[in-house]
Amino acid sequence: xxxxxxxxxRGEWFEALVCDRRTQHLxxxxxxxxxxxxxLLEKLNIFRLAVNMHADITGLNPVTLDVxxxxxxxxxxxxxxxxxxxxxxxxxxxxxxxSLYGAAPFRVDRAPGSSGGGAVVTLDDPAETFALxxxxxxxxxxxxxxxxTVRREDAAARRVRTCLRVQRHRVSGTGGVVEEExxxxxxxxCDLLADLRRLRRVALAEALGTNMPAGLRDSTPTGVPxxxxxxxxxxxxxxxxxxxxxxxxxxxxxxxxxSLSQVARAMAxxxxxxxxxxxxxxxxxxxxxxxxxAFADPDKEAEYIEVKFAFEPMLRFLDxxxxxxxxxxxxxxxxxxxEVQSGQAADSYRKLALKxxxxxAAARRGVLTIKPALERLWTIASAVDSASGLxxxxxxxxxxxxxxxxxxxxxxxxxxxEQEAMLRAGxxxxxxxxxxxxxxxxxxxxxxxIEAEEGRAAQRQQTALFGAAFGDPRNPEPSGTVVPPADNxxxxxxxx
Length: 496
Hints:
By secondary structure, the chain is an alpha+beta fold. It has 15 helices and 15 strands. It has helices at 2-9, 13-19, 46-59, 72-85, 87-101, 204-208, 251-271, 290-296, 311-328, 349-355, 357-386, 412-424, 430-438, 440-466, 492-495; strands spanning 64-66, 104-110, 119-123, 129-135, 141-154, 159-172, 175-185, 200-202, 219-221, 229-232, 236-237, 240-241, 275-276, 303-304, 401-403. The strands form five sheets. Strands 4, 5, 6, 7, 8 and 9 form a six-stranded antiparallel sheet that branches. Strands 3-2-10 form a three-stranded antiparallel sheet. A two-stranded antiparallel sheet has the order 1-15.
């Protein structure tokens, strides 16, 4: 199912609808065009646009990671792991994978290099990563398997050997463990979902040869009480992740393709109408001698065949098909840049936000499952990183809090006005307002620059009003300022 959704996302509609015999509509004479879908099956990939927009709403605002203030070492390492993993880009891609496959698997691993490398967070291919066993209390699978094929040349046997690599993540009685296995595959073909009991297991060294990584073992303890994989899902039903468009509703894409194809074919025939010729102008060889006969005899005339198409009903059907598909995907057509019926985009952010209520509700519903999954992911990453030996003696690890801020894309001035209103109402701090606009990494630097500039401005104003002797009111004893003695202080000469 996920592979089918990915083909639709990439625009491979011919393969997904026609070759797989999922279409319910007749696309005639398609074989005359080389078997390609483009000439006759015009497509507007609203499916791809909708998947991207859902990911933009949830993932364009960077995720906030937070730990208690006394865990400063963990906070610094979280920032380093996030930067080394390119997490923001990976999270946006994971949201798209979750829309297509139902879920996206994140995995905590050691950074490539020496054995003392820190932790990294990677996004695995959902088509090669499978959740096994029952889900735990937090909704995360208790057993994972990653499967992929490995091919290498066997010079002695003069052939290419194919092996199925299996990496299993599970929790044993002593904690998490990663098991590495390899199985020989005959014939070169390999089904990733093959029954391992029917395959011959081989040693890792035999399967990988000289490409075997250093330190790879059959079983490796992780030191954490969870599998190193975490599932990200937009929504679940009875514990199972749901794709953005259910398989039963793929016919809506087929309906959209059919309506677009009908309009395109009608427009093509309208632009190039057929020409009617008298039968006597056609020679025995089937060639029409129009240059001589048509002008030699005025009674022998040629005329175009005018065909009147009912374009308005076809366009209404197209609008309805697009609207049905957008509704099924919980996307507001205005977010894609145009209204289906009126053809006009929203002229303000407020109007767009009002129309996008359903889409924003879907994004906030996804936060209910994504937030705890990310908190578990980053807590595991901190534990693995602390035990990696990158820092001497490790560091204390606290549960990581994750904050997501789903919202529709908007102009920067709208965000500035919102933060300004929240500051005036006392609903946020200056630091949080700056972090919302510039990101957490730049918030401290920008806030320090603002406070320094305010201090210099106050000092200049104080100097202009009272003179330099009084200095900055926030620094009562600046360098070079003479503090006059108090009135009741004893006179130095009298005391002598």
